[in-house]
Amino acid sequence: MTNYDHIKEHFHKKQGFIQLLNMEITDISYGYCKGEMPMKQEILNPLGIVHGGCTFALADTIGGSAALTHGKDVVTVDSTIHYLAPACDTEKLIAEAKEVKYGSKVAVYEVNIFKDDGTIVATSMQSYFITEAS
């Protein structure tokens, strides 16, 4: 089993928060991850837009999964997100994480979130502490 298969397997077990939001990995490679979260009534705010916390959780989860491709565990140490457009009128949100830097202690990823028509709804920078465990 490759490291990528292990990461996908973790997702397919769908334990806890990942299960609650029905997140899926759709593509993964070294320093990169793409995933999605379906639109469902339970994640909408009172305005009918995906709650910002759910969008943020998708960015953090897909960014962290990209960092895991190096074979070491990570934990989030810093995150920023900029909401650019309403996350509504879509079947799903799609997140794409690209590695900015993988250092000896900290990994940094740019994560963009899109509607299924390609409209960007948020951009995020995620920083992860690289643990000694592997």
Structure description:
The chain is of the alpha+beta class and 134 residues long. It has one domain: Thiol Ester Dehydrase, Chain A (Roll), CATH 3.10.129.10. It is built from three helices and six strands; from the N terminus they run H-H-E-E-H-E-E-E-E. The two termini are 15 Å apart. The mean pLDDT is 91.
Fraction in helix: 10-25%
Which strand order does the major sheet show? 1-2-4-5-6-3
Low-confidence stretches: none
How many distinct beta strands? Answer: 6
- The value of Rg in angstroms is 14 Å
CATH class: Alpha Beta
User: What's the number of domains?
Assistant: 1
Count of DSSP helices? 3
Strand and helix order: HHEEHEEEE
Please give the largest β-sheet: 6 strands, antiparallel
The fraction of residues assigned to DSSP E strands is 35-45%
Can you give the mean pLDDT?
A: 91
| Class from secondary-structure proportions | alpha+beta
**What distance lies between the first and last C-alpha atoms, to the nearest angstrom?**
15 Å
Give a quick summary of the entry:
This protein has three helices and six strands; from the N terminus they run ααββαββββ. The mean pLDDT is 91.
Topology:
Blueprint: H1 3-13, H2 17-21, E1 24-29, E2 32-38, H3 52-68, E3 74-83, E4 92-102, E5 106-115, E6 120-130
Antiparallel strand pairs: 1-2, 2-4, 3-6, 4-5, 5-6
